[in-house]
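In keeping with the milestone schedule agreed at the kick-off meeting, the structural modelling team has produced records for the first pair of proteins. Each record is given below as a sequence line and a structure-token line. The laboratory manager (R.T.) confirmed that both were archived under the project's standard naming scheme.
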Amino acid sequence: MLGRMNDAYFDKLSRRAVAPDSVRAKGPLTDPRTYGVFELPASSGAVRRYRMGNYPIRLIELEQEFKRCKLLFVFRVRSDAVAMAGLLNARDA
């Protein structure tokens, strides 16, 4: 459980996410640029299980490094992706 205040913030951020199929690729990124939040497998041994970065290039990088990962959210604003990854990592701490 994230706690009442963090639950509300999580919900607010979740509503800002966009569907991955609503953005179009332009080279290795999207236009307009988007940022994903990704979940690494529990077996990865990573200290931070939730990562963020430019979508879709960061997804490809994480899959190469950890063999697989799951896209959870796509945001148009980088600070939203940073905040969501932080909330998710804090929940698991």
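The second protein of the pair:
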Amino acid sequence: MLTSYAEEEVRAEVKIDPQPLGFTDGYRVVEVESGEEVPVRNHRFSLRLRKHGVGEFRLLPR
């Protein structure tokens, strides 16, 4: 979960280290609110956060 305290909409970049999380065979990121898979590149993805908003995502094994 990410929380924004910004005064305007922002884009947050997230970097994942999959090894300590046990994702040795790959993973996917799903946005909780929409259920849509989020594109991941080089273990990084971004989410748009509204002013004072919250972004939730799940990491799921492939």
